[in-house]
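Lay summary. Proteins are chains of building blocks that fold into shapes, and those shapes determine what they do. In this project we predict the shape from the chain. Here is one chain we studied, written as its sequence of building blocks.
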Amino acid sequence: MRGFARGIRQHHFGVTGDLECARRVGQVRDSQAAKLQVVLRRNRDPQQGLNPIVLNAELGGALGEVHLIPIGRGADGPGEHLDVSIADGVLWLTSLAVDEYLVTGAPVGFGHNIITGRYACYDTYRCADGRWVAVGAIEAKFFANLCRLIGCEQWTGSQLDDGAQDAVRADFAAAFATRDRDDWVDALAAADTCVSPVLTVAELVEDEQYVARRAVVMATLDGDTRADGAPASFRQVGPVLAGMPGVGQQVVAGDPSRSDTAELLAAAGVAADRIIELQTKGVVA
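And here is the predicted shape, written in a compact code that computers can read:
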């Protein structure tokens, strides 16, 4: 931003490295940004469509861009050039797997350890109604309980037997396919089996855990209706930010037609006359 920061860029790959040229020639694609993802699960997961790694990387980059601008500028400094790379965010979010490879040199990917699909005790299974359960029975006692309650006691001693996993997984899949998801959850969740339902987004927002924590709140806009005729009151995931008066309180959404840039700059220590000057020059809105 002229007169405020030396430069602000959020790209898929940043402004350095071999892929920086893709930005300059306009060939950046989301699929390219996702190339650093480590495939740790089969492509048969029950919930397709949302990629939390990429979503978090993009959100984190955007928030970093917004919050670091006034910090870098201060009241009278020259500003800073902020290079925000979505691909870097993907890399950092997969740092556990990356660091494991760097330390051990062993291949990291689907099926390389207990939490990436190597064993049937940590997987998802389709139920009779087409919905899914998640199994995370890592400890031996939980696995034994699971085997007993789904009628697969023959596999109790084979939890970490690599040669038996295809057969264990096939029997588990056949067992879970005999009853609806919620029936299995009622039978297993409280029985020390580490089984839980795989929820849809519609189910997630009504889940007792998040309701109790007031994770979804009501939001309102000034006035009775929005300019486009949509309701002025709606539900959304509640923000949890430092200094908030309380989690779960109703949120008053700002008027989307106005900018709070002046307030943010003032809070960062920029003088009022300087803010007016920047607005007059069209540097900020």
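What the prediction tells us: Residues 208-279 form one domain.
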